[in-house]
Design goal:
mainly alpha, extended, two-stranded parallel sheet, 236 residues, 7 helices, 2 domains
């Protein structure tokens, strides 16, 4: 193969552009597709990132020490086996799970739900991940809308049958935002709707999970009284 000037171009397997200045190259898996250089005096590094992280750690340590000096920890008295507090609440990071135990059987809320979450985290990496983070409804829109409405309806009906209103409200709000994203026209002038339309499935799943976690934890912390009954936090 040659051009108008008579220079010959060959096809080789290589990765160093300086040693093999060719127009066609085949890069195998055992070599990197980049220009290799051995005479660089400096290397690419990010020392400012480590410096900022060190400052953040020191500031956080100072804040925690000051809080511990000026504020007492909200500890109760020694545990008394003969007197169980009512309600007996778990630590705040388990209150969301304890709130689910109020609605579902212990096997469902304490075993099945955590097991499904762990299995999902194990299985998800083996699927075709949306690396480019494209909008959920930008491709194959009709089919994805059908799956979305069926899945959302089943989930909302399941929560409604078990009377899990505290979990149903965040779910309905997330579904409403996803519906706005699904039916956003391509030529919309709203930056908010355009931003929602460009969010991938991972964003919606994680947003729904965090929304549920915050709501369930807040309800278990502030709105549960004796016998795990519903109470208003400003009433004793």
């Amino acid at each position: 193969m040659s051009d108008a000037t008579g220079k010959d171009f060959v096809a080789v397997v290589a990765s160093d552009q300086r040693k093999a200045p060719v127009r066609v190259a085949f890069v195998t898996r055992r070599t990197s597709a980049q220009v290799k250089s051995q005479d660089e005096e400096v290397i690419q590094a990010f020392p400012e990132v480590l410096f900022r992280a060190a400052i953040a750690v020191q500031l956080l340590a100072i804040v925690l020490v000051l809080i511990s000096l000026f504020f007492n920890a909200p500890l109760e008295g020694l545990a008394d086996p003969s007197h169980t507090p009512n309600p007996a609440k778990a630590p705040w990071y388990f209150l969301g799970l304890q709130e689910l135990l109020h609605y579902f059987p212990p096997v469902v809320a304490g075993v099945l739900v955590p097991t499904l979450v762990v299995l999902a985290l194990i299985v998800i990496p083996y699927f075709n991940i949306n690396v480019e983070a494209e909008g959920l409804f930008l491709k194959d829109r009709k089919r994805r809308l059908q799956i979305f409405w069926v899945s959302s309806g089943v989930l909302c009906l399941f929560l409604l049958l078990f009377d899990v209103i505290v979990a149903l409200v965040p779910t309905v709000m997330t579904v409403a935002l996803m519906a706005v994203a699904a039916y956003t026209p391509a030529n919309t002038s709203s930056n908010f709707r355009r931003s929602l339309a460009g969010k991938p499935l991972s964003f919606w799943v994680m947003s729904w999970f965090l929304f549920e976690l915050v709501v369930l934890t807040a309800v278990g912390t502030f709105f549960r009284g004796p016998g795990w009954s519903w109470v208003l936090p400003w009433r004793s």
